[in-house]
Structure formats: C-alpha cells, structure tokens
Amino acid sequence: MLFICVTYIAYKIKMINIADKLINNIIKTKNPTVVGLDPDLSKIPLCYLKGNFEGNKLEKVAGAIYEYNKDIIDTVFEYVPAVKPQMAFYEKYGSFGVRAFEKTVKYALEKGLVVIEDGKRNDIGNTALAYAKGHLGKVETLDNELIESFNVDFLTISPFLGSESLEPFINECVKSNKGVFILVKTSNKSAGEIQDVVMNNEKTVSENLACYVNDKANCFYGEYGYSSIGAVVGATYPEDAKALRKLMPRSFFLVPGYGVQGGSALDIVACFNSDGLGAIVNSSRGILYSHLSKYEKENITKREYLQKVLKETKKMQKDIYACLLENCKDILY
What we know:
This protein is α/β, with parallel strands linked by helices. It has helices spanning 18-29, 57-76, 88-91, 94-110, 125-135, 163-176, 192-195, 205-217, 238-247, 265-268, 285-288, 294-299, 302-327; strands spanning 13-14, 33-37, 82-85, 114-121, 138-140, 146-148, 154-157, 179-185, 220-221, 227-233, 251-255, 279-283. The protein has one domain (25-327): TIM Barrel (Alpha-Beta Barrel).
C-alpha cells in the first residue's frame, strides 16, 4: 500500500464540525484528555461485581459493566471533555456487551461528553459503507426510515486496505457531522515494523498516511480551524509526533500511550499546536486501575474507588495543562 504525498487542491468548506464540540469541551474543562472506558473484570473493584444483576451470566456481566461505566461518567463528566469506550471490551460479551456499550454511549452523550469509539473498523466497498453508516451515520429500517444506530461522535479506523476503505467513513463524517481518527503512528512497541518502513517516495508509511489525512482534513473544518478527520498518534514516539504535527496541522490527534505505557506530559506536547489545541490524550488504565493494590481491588467501596478515579483524573489534567501553559505560546484556554 502506498499513499502518495501530493499537493491537494480542493474547495475548502468551513462548516459545523464535531471537532468544535470537542474543542469547546476542552476549553470549558481546561483539559485536553479523554478517559478510556475499558471495563476489564480482572481489574474492576469487587464492589462492582457483587450486584444483583438479572439475566444469564453474560447479561449479568453487561449489567455490571454499565453500572461501573455510569459511575465513572458521573464522576468525571465535569472535568473531562470526552470518554473513549474500547469496543473489544464489550463485543467479547456478545449482544449483551454491545447493549452495555450502546447504553454507555447514550448516557455519556446525555452528560454532554464527546464519545470516541475505539473500534478500529476497516473494510472496502459495501462493507466499509455499512460500518460507516452503523457507527457514524444512519441505517435503514423496515418502513424506509433512516435512524441512528451506535451514534458515537468519533470512530477510530484502520487505513491498511487503502483509500477505498477510508472514503466511506470520511464521506459519512461530512454527511452526518461526525469524526474519525485514522491510525497513523500508534504507541505499541512493534508499530515501526510496518509504520516506519520507508516507501519508494522516501517517506515512511506513517508520513504517507499523514499526507492523506491532511489532504482530507483540509477539505472541511470548523470554527476553530480544525477538521474532524483526525489521526491516532502515540505519545511514546515524541520525535515522530513532532514531524507528523507539521504534516497534519488541521487534524486532531488521538494520543494513546500516556502514563502506564511510558509517555509523559512533556512527550505529548509535540502532538499539540501552539494554541494548545489539536490533540486529545487518552488514559484508561492510569485512571481506572493502576492506582489500586490487590487488597484495594477486593475491599474498596464504590465511594472510595470513585474518589481515587477523580483524583487521578484531576492529576492528569493538572500535569498536562501545566506543561501546555509552559510550552504553547498561543494557548487559547
């Protein structure tokens, strides 16, 4: 696969853009972070797994997951702009888990949060279109009505089947005022085996992807000048992030790898523009689990646990915001 980096000439449209909702939430909370909702039964405190949930074994798990997510959302919604449920943690429980995901999305939206579905969808043709409509747009009903299905704000997508796999998602973003984060430079250790390969135009795979993302992002953007066509760029490779930021000035970066995976507040500064915008930094385990000992997991009360979650959320905000104030000369918030 090769994405050629070329000068892209297009009619640029300034329009209502889901990126503006994300930015408004960031400015309101002074917090460019997103809490990952990755419900892992091996890590969730025991107090959330003892409820009197109805149904079969899978349905009971889904009930516990939703109760847990709901409490997390109630705890952080005033302090963060967005949440990011990772679909794998729901799909593994089948239709019951997916239902918990749907209820979580609905509740988060009601609280005014931006919802980023980490689903990494990808395919071609009608299959890609079906994914795009199901997760970002509207689907057909028996009476020919079009209604929203998952109704998330953003979806992560994989680019490795080429541009024909991305166009249906991007078109749906324009049509339905939604957004995508395209995998460009991920935070995992083996990412470079593919993403750092130098192509015959002397750019890496990630750089070629960045050029493609930038071409699409330049076609439409919102009030703040940012597009809803974004990129996943990991915190664990700050020098790469700095180069990619220059290649994608209008795109928001979804930044994994902060905290538990080794990325620091200083590392993630390269993902931002000088206005302090352009990136949303994810933490899942760092906020939800890493601060719990085995004893606490087994004995902590819900109230005590949520106090710890809030403490970690505020700490992440403080660390990142202080670093942005020091390094972003034109910060807007």
